[in-house]
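Batch job 17 of 40 flagged for manual review because the log was empty.
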Amino acid sequence: MKTTAPNKIKSTLLFVILLSSIMFTFSLLPLAKAETKVSINPTSGYVGTNVTLTANVSNLGTYRILFDGNEISSGEATENNITINFIIPHAPQGAHNITLIDAMGENDTKTFTIVTFQSFKPQVPEPPAQLQEGANLIINVNITGGLANYTYPKIKVQTPREALNYTLRNDINITTDAFGDCLFNVTYPDDFVEGANTNFTGYYKIFFNETFAGEQFFIGITNASSYHRGDVVNIKAVNYPISENVTITIKFGNETVHTENYTVTDGTINYDWTITNNLLVSNSTHTYNVTITPVPTAKNLTDTQIFNIPGFNTTVYTLNLAGKGVSDVLLKVHDVSANANYTSRSGSGGYVNFMLEIGNYTAEAYFKDVKVGEGFSFSVVREALLNFSFTCNITGLNIIVANELGVRIPQVNVTLVYNYTTNYGTPENRTATEYNQTDINGLVVFPAVLTNVTCVVNASLYGVVFNVGNNTIYDLPAAEYVNVTVLYPTRKLNIQVLDANNQPIPSATLKAQELTVGLFAEGEAVNGNATLNCTFGRYSVKVFFCDMLLNETVFDLTSSDAEFNVTLKCQLYGLNIAVRVVDYFGQPISSANVILHSGSLQDTKQTDSSGTATFPSAIGGEIQIEVYMPGHSEPCVTKTFNVGESTVLTIKVDRYAVLAGFLVETGTLATAIVVAITAILIIILEVYRRRRLKRQEVKEEQK
């Protein structure tokens, strides 16, 4: 004790000194604290860009956002992570500082680069109205985020005669302010150099700094790019010699629809022409073109321009007699005013779209090139919803497949065939063939069928038609729907049920199910005979004795026979199963109780002198056998076998051995044998010991 106490005191002192040194060292270190960090997205863009600033602030409270030192936004930070959006203010192009300052002055700065935005937008009328020759127009000049207090190059307009270009007048400059902005309007041609004009038909391009600025405007000789019947077309062209005789020609494709001789009185052509009611709608290959000839020397460019008569979007719904849309109906529309025909086919839902002009129309409908509707008339008016319904002489055919009890049959293939003669174009004799399958309700619908035709309806399963001789519908009427029921035929299935020895099974349950449509039939076999009332199809037939499946077989009932006689042999029923019980050495054990379990059934037998228990009418399959020794209530052996035929099963009971007609547990027998051997060895050793001792005594006496 005297030697350990001083050591403990020294250790404690050393620990206190070390701890004090560590605390002193840490006291000299600066306190660690979170730093305010900022990120922005995007990092470049135009003036007015919406920027998202994300920051981690050190101190909660009021924060400020500065743009080049000027506050542009602020807020309250209630948590360290904040997100705020702001708009980039007006400033010259280049890099600018965005700074966030938190409540305690901690700050971080990021850079946003302003890109110059420039636009030179001509103000033109809302289409289809358009500017005509001799017109003035305003060009909006907009430069934002450009160089500060800088004069940019003048804009230039290139006319359809590309050699003629006109620049902004010298007294009009594009000069930015201190923020790099310049926003004002100029008028073309008034604010451009002498000679600037809109005397040509075509596109005028705007150039900035000798580069196409991406903007152009169109000058035409008509006051619009499209018209409708009854509209007045104003044709205006300038810079023609006074008293010049010109010809105004309007064509549709290669066909001339109007010609007018016109005398110029004041250098300007100003002519009105009304779109007549017989003009056709423009299409992908034909448009209208107006041309003025001859070409004046001063212009050296032909005044020619296209315009359209687009028509109005008109929708016609082709319906069957039940009011349901029918696709693939050819609609032939006659334009009464223009004496022209337009055709188109209905798509999904029965919709047909036409571009039709103002006027009256009649229509005919053809289905499979057979006329199914006529005398339908309608009018197209301006600015209206143009939707029309055309009911056609097309019926729907509902086919139900059901058995005699009214049970509807799903998944039956139904084929509809009928002959007809076309009357659109050259008459032809044709055959229509349609396919479908009954749904879960045993119903199949053919929504579009010609009327007054003779139809053949073939219903089949597994490729076999089962309604031959009862499959014709004569002169299909013009009704909303025609309902037809196809009888699903019955089949009687007579089954003889035999056991493994070809003997009738006295009692069994038979269950049959159709493989496709799922119909079910069940019956009891009496003295080996059963009759199942089935229908057309293929049936899986199962034979049960109690809850045990004896056999499963598929029978095809798709032939025309109404009755079928079949035999089912149950190979597992009536088996002769012998169970031989032997001991450890293979000797038979008599008087043992053997229980055979087959499904929910069980049978008990006792082994004879040969150790055999016989079960003469057993049911095979998976069986379980339990062996009980005489006088025992618990099985000494339990085994499972899969038996498919009559057989002898040997069960070896390793626990017992037969000794002199008595059962002895092998453990007891082994112990007795060990004891006997041990006793014999002891006796041998004792005899050997005594003999040796006797020899030694004799030797000593002889000495």
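Reviewer: the log was empty due to a logging misconfiguration, but the result itself is present. The first helix runs from residue 4 to 28. Unflagging and moving on to job 18.
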